[in-house]
Structures are given as structure tokens and as C-alpha cells.
């Protein structure tokens, strides 16, 4: 599970507002907890991992709210062609979305979850999740379309 989902979980923690090191720490601690003294396998492991990552990230971020200044230029993702400008532009566009929309897009696009699974992870009604996804895509199309028009 760690090899398959660890990087996506860390990126998800980054989208929840953590720096790179803290995001990796959250994911590592989560897996250590699952393998600890009282090892357990949740009924829906992937949904559990994302919900636990979300909760731990938000708790950590809340605790550090006054002390952490997130680096806008620190990448969340790696571009397949190594184009760092596109990565940073995408991150900025995602950062400009309301938190709930950013989370929904991340879980759908980068984690491959269905809207129903996202509804379960975020404990949000399915129709609300679908609306958040639709609104976020509209905003991203507008924002990123302008970026690509400038480059063209």
C-alpha cells in the first residue's frame, strides 16, 4: 500500500497545506500506526488512508498555523517532462481554489477516487462533492486556459 499510494498521499497532505517534510511525516506516521502493536486493516483501506491523512494534515496545520509560512515555489508534483513552470502554475491555480474544491479535485484526479469514495472520505453528501468538482474544474479551465494562451 505504501509503495502504491505513499507518494499520492504525501501530495494530498501537501494540498491540505503542509510542507514537503511534514507531509511525508504524516504519511509515515500513518503507516507506522497501522503496523504498530495493534496492527489493523480497515474495511476500506484506501478511503481510510486518505481520511486519516486529511485529518492528520489539518490537525498539524492547525497546530502550526502561526508558525508555518508555506513555500509557494516548493513543488507538490513532478511534471512528466520536467516542466517546473507548469507544475508551479498548476499548484498556484489549485491553491486559489476554495479548500473543499481543491481537495475534491485532488482526490478525483490524482488519487483516482470516484465521487462516491470522495463523499465517504470527506463525509460530505455526494451531490455536494459533485458540485465542488464541477465548480473547481470550471475555475481551473479558466485559470489555466489563460496561462496557456499567454504561452502560445
Principal-axes shape call: globular
What do the pLDDT scores average to?
Answer: 82
Separation, N- and C-terminal Cα atoms: 40 Å
- Decide which structural class fits the backbone: mainly alpha
Tally of separate helices: 7
Instruction: Tell me about the largest β-sheet.
Output: none
**Radius of gyration from the CA trace?**
16 Å
Would you list the SSEs in sequence order as H and E? HHHHHHH
User: Count of DSSP E strands?
Assistant: 0
Classify the helix fraction into a percent range: over 70%
Strand content: under 5%
Unreliable stretches (pLDDT < 50, length at least 5) are none
* Domain tally: 1
Keyword list:
single chain; 152 residues; mainly alpha; 0% strand
Overview of the structural elements:
- The chain has 152 residues and is an all-alpha fold.
- The chain has one domain (2-151).
- The protein is built from seven helices and no strands.
- It has helices at 2-15, 20-35, 45-64, 84-96, 99-110, 115-122, 126-151.
- Helix 2 (20-35) packs across helix 3 and helix 6 (115-122) packs across helix 7.
